[in-house]
Amino acid sequence: MLNGLWLGFFIVAAVSALAQWLIGGNAGIFAAMVESIFAMAKLSVEVMVLLFGTLTLWLGFLRIAEKAGIVEWLAKALGPLFLRLMPEVPAGHPAIGLITLNFAANGLGLDNAATPIGLKAMKALQELNPSDTIASNAQILFLVLNASSLTLLPVTIFMYRAQQGAPDPTLVFLPILLATSCSTIVGLLSVAFMQRLRLWDPVVLAYLIPGALALGAFMALLGTLSATALAGLSSILGNLTLFGLIMVFLIIGALRKVKVYEAFVEGAKEGFDVAKNLLPYLVAMLCAVGVLRASGALDFGLDGIRHLVEWAGWDTRFVDALPTAMVKPFSGSAARAMLIETMKTSGVDSFPALVAATIQGSTETTFYVLAVYFGAVGIQRARHAVGCALLAELAGVLGAIGVCYWFFG
């Protein structure tokens, strides 16, 4: 799937360039495409330098949290909820801790670091699966919640914005938080409907109702603020949460007699190993997207969508962010490339770039997650996993667009 998507970018770009040369008389189009390839290769390395630091930093702090027992505590705290949402998983099973750690990595926006943890969790769930080829209910719920991408602190999005020169990288903190809540709620409800999960169970309600009330009250508070105040609050909360989380990990680790420096270095080494494998994918996708843009094919497609949106009488500013949304279900690296390209083309704090960053932070690579997670354990029948995951993704995209008009419109 990823092979076809990447090859398709170049084929579409070649057809578009030939049309511009033979029909439009633009003989310089090929020089522009070659220049774009080298420019994007250079940009890939620049982005990678900061990505090395980001993944190394946060996997280091995550290892402190793990050794301090924070992850184990979260697993125990969520145990009663998982027992009802995943009744086939016994209490205290290792899968619960791995699922919790995976959600923690996703919550920090460390999608590349979350994947290896998620694969371990999926394999642990497969041990409880009576079928070798059919996804269990627990596996489907885990995958859909993973695909819904509950991101509480999108540090990698902050990193991309910082690398592109954003004066306030955390400006999209609250929009992503609200949009990712939309995708996660829709994902959970869709799976609950298909699996007949008893969400009205007193224990489940004890977890969900306070969260729903807090989110509703928070949104009601946000509704009283102006766009300027919303942007300012997002910045303050983003930076405060980021630094506060670091201090919580360090203080609890120190109180638990964890050698925080050694633990950080241990986790950071893992982060370095994860990051160094990403450069080839980043170069491949950024160059493909650069060629697509330079050939005029991407602009041609977006112009068609823009005309349809204008015909419907809607505002068209979000259209330039749609490439990120369209490729995100297939490839995280392609969506990342589209996001970076949108920030470079439109400006890091332009409306399309803010929408694209919010979409990137609140949705997940649905088909990639399905292929990798289920493929790792030999699952061939996904049952209702695809439909529920795509529904959650759609909710995340629509939520991101709506929230950005609220905050930045």
Q: What keyword list fits this structure?
A:
single chain; 409 residues; 18 helices; mainly alpha
Brief synopsis:
The chain is mainly α and 409 residues long.
General description of the model:
The structure is a single chain. The protein has helices spanning 2-22, 29-67, 70-85, 94-107, 111-126, 137-147, 155-163, 173-195, 202-222, 227-255, 260-276, 279-294, 297-311, 322-327, 332-346, 351-362, 366-376, 385-408. It is 77% helix and 0% strand. It has one domain. By secondary structure, the chain is mostly helical. Helix 2 runs antiparallel to helix 7 (155-163). The protein is built from 18 helices and no strands.
Structural topology:
Layout: H1 2-22, H2 29-67, H3 70-85, H4 94-107, H5 111-126, H6 137-147, H7 155-163, H8 173-195, H9 202-222, H10 227-255, H11 260-276, H12 279-294, H13 297-311, H14 322-327, H15 332-346, H16 351-362, H17 366-376, H18 385-408
Helix pairs in contact: 1-12, 2-7, 2-10, 2-11, 2-12, 3-4, 4-5, 5-6, 5-17, 6-8, 6-17, 6-18, 8-16, 8-18, 12-15, 15-16, 16-18
Helix content: over 70%
Total domain modules: 1
Structural class: mainly alpha
What can be said about the biggest beta sheet?
none
Kindly, what is the distance between the CA atoms of the first and last residues, rounded to a whole number of angstroms?
Answer: 36 Å
Mean pLDDT: 81
